[in-house]
Specification:
About 30% of the residues lie in helices and about 20% in strands. It is α/β, with parallel strands linked by helices. Strands 4-3-5-2-6-7-1-8-9 form a nine-stranded mixed sheet, with helices on both faces. The longest helix is centred in the first third of the chain and has 15 residues, at about 45-60. It is globular and about 40 Å long.
């Protein structure tokens, strides 16, 4: 189960249909991360989706515990659960490259959620997701979500090249699976699957 794998310290790729429990995994990760006094960053490709997740997480965790960063809005930007657009996170990573870890704006971040990770294959914007994976601090757990990713094993192989943590791949759901549908195993990846999924 993806939640158990996350709690054991793994990153995760979760290719699951809409309304199958992906948000439950993120909520469990947020609770565990905040309990440790650390931050979870939740990225989306669209401002509208970021605003929706900001409202949803505000209802779940309380408005004071959730922040929002988009090109148009900066609300409670020091919150432990921060929703932001993917480009904003990429720019934060650019700004932190080469900085001493305690001085980095990402020092308190334990988890990064990449919602709609299938955008990696988008010709015009896929490089943003690639750069996040490549520049992500190695100790940060990644949770990669998508309802439409067609090649989760290839995606996991590529992501696994850049992680120092084990990676859990949640198998694609079949109609009768459990609520979050995950019955995969945790394993470490060392697969040389190529340099770029954006061109695949």
């Amino acid at each position: 189960m993806a939640i158990e794998a996350f709690l054991r310290g793994s990153s995760a790729v979760v290719p699951a249909p809409t309304s199958s429990g992906k948000t439950l995994i993120v909520e469990a990760a947020a609770v565990a991360t905040v309990a440790r006094g650390r931050w979870l960053l939740y990225t989306t490709p669209l401002k509208a989706l970021s605003n929706q997740k900001f409202r949803q997480f505000g209802e779940t965790f309380g408005d004071n515990n959730v922040g929002l960063l988009t090109g148009d809005s900066a609300v409670n930007k020091d919150a432990q659960v921060l929703v932001l657009t993917t480009e904003i996170l990429r720019n934060m990573l650019y700004n932190s490259v080469g900085m001493a870890s305690t001085g980095s704006g990402l020092f308190h971040v334990d988890v990064i959620v990449l919602d709609e990770v299938h955008y990696l294959s988008d010709i015009s914007r896929g490089t943003v997701w690639e750069e996040i994976v490549i520049y992500c601090p190695k100790e940060v757990q990644l949770i990669c979500l998508s309802a439409t990713v067609a090649n989760p094993d290839e995606l996991a192989g590529w992501i696994g090249q850049y992680l120092s943590l084990p990676l859990f791949v949640c198998p694609a759901l079949l109609g009768s699976q459990t609520q979050n549908g995950c019955s995969g195993e945790v394993f470490s990846l060392d697969l040389g699957v190529g340099d770029s999924l954006a061109t695949a």
